[in-house]
Amino acid sequence: MTERKAILTIDGEDTPIVLNVYPATLGQDVIDVSPVLGRGYFTFDQGFASTASTESKITYIDGDKGILMHRGYPIEELAEKSDYLETCFLILNGELPNAKEKVDFQNIIRTHTMLNRSVESFFSGFRYDAHPMAILCGAVGAMSSFYHDSLDINDPHHRMITAHRLIAKMPTLAAMCHKHFIGQPYMYPDNSLGYSENFLHMMFGNPCEEKEINPVVAKAVDKLFLLHADHEQNASTSTVRLAGSSGANPFSCVAAGIAALWGPAHGGANQAVLEMLKQIGDVKHIDNFVKRAKDKDDPFRLMGFGHRVYKNFDPRAVVMKKTCDAVLGELGLFDDPLLKIAKRLETIALEDEYFVEKKLYPNVDFYSGIIMKAIGIPTEMFTAIFATGRTVGWISHWNEMISNPYRIGRPRQLYTGPLKREYVPVDQRG
Ligand code: SDX
Q: pTM for this one?
């Protein structure tokens, strides 16, 4: 392929800056702007909307066409034909597993679900009503203290065992957060169960009685995990990569990703959607809230709407909506008042010129909360579920970075602070 160049001419500069253009296999080609430093400039892109921070082969998103693919497989196909653990294998290793690989991977994950007993005492240090994301941040970061035998980030085997441990133990940790919150005994994993069934067992089971797991609910949880598995260089994944670029251990990098995900503009939106729907309370109040969302002077936003990349439907939201209907139908909750408000809100927003003009569509978080509420998952656990599903994406991006040549991430800035000035002793200040 012929090498393409971009020519940057700057007022007052005689010689233009010649920049290389690198081709993508899909989506936008990139302009390597690093030479501008040699000419005394930085590039400026607040929020990194136009910045490719890295090269990756894991996930591709086309925001205008509403396309999401993991290692080339469209999310709609994976959601319909695959399952969460198989998708984890794909995202982590780059290919779908064959029959033996699939069974071996299930067994590897199944045999790493337990946590060291000391972790339980770690939980007792948290207030009874600590937010699950506060606990997850701490607990996942602390996990590095249990695995000194496999923290050599340059050893591919250590990287893989760590990935397996994180994928396997996140559901156990998340369920423990819930049990801690409601003051019930922790449930040990039951390794005779599948990944998502086991999560429901640890979330809703108790030592006093057998708890039947509804297969429709288990399938919905598996789909929730799958739809949240990875999403390119989003805020939390970029945080994991930046933390990892310093050579920090993978558990602390994932803990940093959990912290970034917690924000309501990111993974915390699913909890914020439910709280918003409850605040709206009745379809007759929707117009007022839509009016507020459009008011520049009102900080209120329609949670679950809009996306930095998708300027069309979020393909995950389309699948999530179908799953929502299936779960509510199975549980006989079709007249769930919050679902009614959500569907009416979606219709109104999609017809309103403000949302149409700004291309604000429902995103992955809009319907996921309604599914989780229908399953009986408390609102404060929603983002912990998102984090559990996203762990494979975080650790796969971390592994991709560490497996290839990388440098510590160190962005610069546009400084607009004070010029140099002399220190004034305090008794001479005004
Ligand atoms: C996730 O990046 C990822 O991939 C994230 C994610 C993943 O899987 O990792 O997909 C998961 O985080 C989904 C997004 C969940 N967040 C929410 O639902 C919170 C509500 N949405 C917004 O806060 C917002 O849309 C963002 C944060 C999602 C995107 O913000 P951007 O890209 O910075 O867009 P913006 O804030 O510049 O908005 C553009 C315009 C603005 O109006 P103008 O200043 O141009 O006049 O649209 C308006 C905004 O005011 N706008 C909204 C709105 N979202 C954007 N107005 C009302 N309600 C909203 N929800």
A: 0.95
Q: Is 187 in the pocket of ligand 1 (CB under 6 A)?
A: no
Give the residue numbers marked as catalytic.
266, 307, 365
Q: Ligand 1 atom 23: the closest Cα is on which residue?
A: 265
Q: Which whole-number Å values give the CA distances from 67 to 77, 87, 347, 390, 411, in the listed order?
A: 12, 17, 22, 18, 30
Separation CA 311–CA 64 (nearest Å) = 5
Per-position DSSP letters for 204-245, written without gaps between them: H-BTTB-----HHHHHHHHHHHHHTS--SS-HHHHHHHHHHT
Q: Is the CB of 307 under 6 A from ligand 1?
A: yes
Query: Which numbered atom of ligand 1 lies nearest the CA of 358?
Result: 47
Nearest protein Cα to ligand 1, atom 41: 358
Verify whether ligand 1 is closer than 6 Å to residue 59 (CB atom). no
**Angle at the Cα of 274 (from 270 to 275), degrees rounded to 5?**
110
Integer Cα distance of 83 and 64 in angstroms: 27
Going residue by residue through the chain, which has 430 residues, state the pLDDT in tens, using 9 for 90 and above.
568 999 999 999 999 999 999 999 999 999 999 999 999 999 999 999 999 999 999 999 999 999 999 999 999 999 999 999 999 999 999 999 999 999 999 999 999 999 999 988 889 999 999 999 999 999 999 999 999 889 999 999 999 999 999 999 999 999 999 999 999 999 999 999 999 999 999 999 999 998 899 999 999 999 999 999 999 999 999 999 999 999 999 999 999 999 999 999 999 999 999 999 999 999 999 999 999 999 999 999 999 999 999 988 899 999 999 998 888 898 898 888 888 899 899 998 889 999 999 999 899 899 899 899 999 999 999 999 999 999 999 999 999 999 999 999 999 999 999 999 999 999 999 9
Taking the centre of ligand 1 as the mean of its atom positions, its distance from the CA of residue 171, in whole angstroms, is 28
* Two tokens, residue 210: 């057998």
Q: Specify the ligand 1 atom closest to the Cα of 363.
A: 13
19: helix, coil or strand?
strand
- Location of structure tokens 């940790």: 173
